[in-house]
Specification:
By secondary structure, this protein is an all-alpha fold. It is about 70% helix and about 0% strand. α3 (about 75-105) runs parallel beside α6, α3 runs antiparallel to α8 and α8 (about 185-215) runs antiparallel to α10. Residues about 1-10 have low confidence and may be disordered.
Length: about 280
């Protein structure tokens, strides 16, 4: 009787774990700063050589000097605080109203029939063109400025909330219902995560529209604010202060957008989108 020799199969050699490449984010950040720095240096050079008349567009160094002067005596801080207060109040009012109406229209058929048609009609009207009517309705005080910011923030948040809810795959909701989740649980675990990316996009667009609306609102019978500071500087031909106000608005918009990006990245850690190569 022949004896069969059993040989053990060689153990499978595990593949080496790939080493993650070192992050290139710091290099990308420096690369993203290259074009703004080059633009500012070109602007400074053109102003110093006379290509740009100082009464038309002063040098960046002159603008920074004007900013330092206004910051040192406290003028810039007063106007900046009032502008931030108006922007926050308008965003809060317009954003909450848009979120509520967008959710009602997105989730309920009756809400869609009653809420969406008038909103679709109103969005065709440029909200900055409503300034004369708003002056008649709310006057020329603080209510006008906050109303303009609220109108500017309302439509981006409403439409992105509505679209974010309607774009959710209905099969996911049915699967959650099959698994025994109640209506509140489905809203929390399916609808809210599915609508968050669109909602963050709406917030980013709303912030940009809010700052644009505030620029216009603060130039109508205002006594404080960055817009008032620019209008007052225009009366005295202080071009450096006018440009400073524009830069302050731009920085406020940039910083608010960056803060929203950080919040979005933290809340949407589960999302893996396409990255630029």
């Amino acid at each position: 009787m022949s004896r069969t020799t059993l040989t053990e199969a060689p153990a499978e050699v595990s593949a080496p774990t790939p080493v993650a490449p070192r992050s290139r984010r710091p290099a990308r950040r420096w690369r993203r700063l290259a074009s703004p720095v080059a633009l500012v240096l070109g602007w400074e050079l053109a102003a110093r050589t006379g290509l740009l008349p100082p009464e038309k567009l002063p040098a960046p160094s002159d603008v920074l000097a004007a900013g330092w002067r206004l910051a040192r005596d406290g003028t810039l801080a007063i106007h900046l605080l009032d502008s931030l207060t108006r922007a926050a109040a308008g965003l809060l009012i317009g954003g909450l109203l848009a979120l509520i109406l967008g959710t009602v229209a997105g989730l309920l058929r009756l809400g869609d029939d009653l809420v969406d048609p008038p909103v679709q009609m109103a969005r065709m009207l440029p909200h900055l063109g409503l300034v004369p009517l708003l002056i008649i309705w709310v006057g020329i005080g603080e209510s006008l400025k906050i109303s303009l910011v609220a109108l500017g923030a309302f439509f981006p948040i409403y439409f992105n909330t509505y679209a974010g809810i309607r774009d959710i795959d209905e099969r996911l909701v049915e699967a959650a219902r099959t698994c025994g989740l109640g209506q509140a649980a489905r809203l929390r675990h399916v609808v809210l995560p599915g609508a968050l990316p669109a909602l963050f996009l709406g917030l980013r667009l709303a912030i940009g529209a809010a700052w644009l609306s505030l620029v216009v609102g603060e130039q109508v019978n205002a006594q404080t604010g960055i817009g008032f500071l620019m209008m007052e500087a225009r009366e005295f031909s202080q071009t450096d202060v006018v440009v400073l106000g524009l830069l302050v608005y731009a920085l406020l918009g940039l910083l608010s957008d960056l803060a929203l990006r950080v919040l979005e990245r933290r809340m949407l850690t589960w999302r893996r989108g396409l990255r630029a190569t």
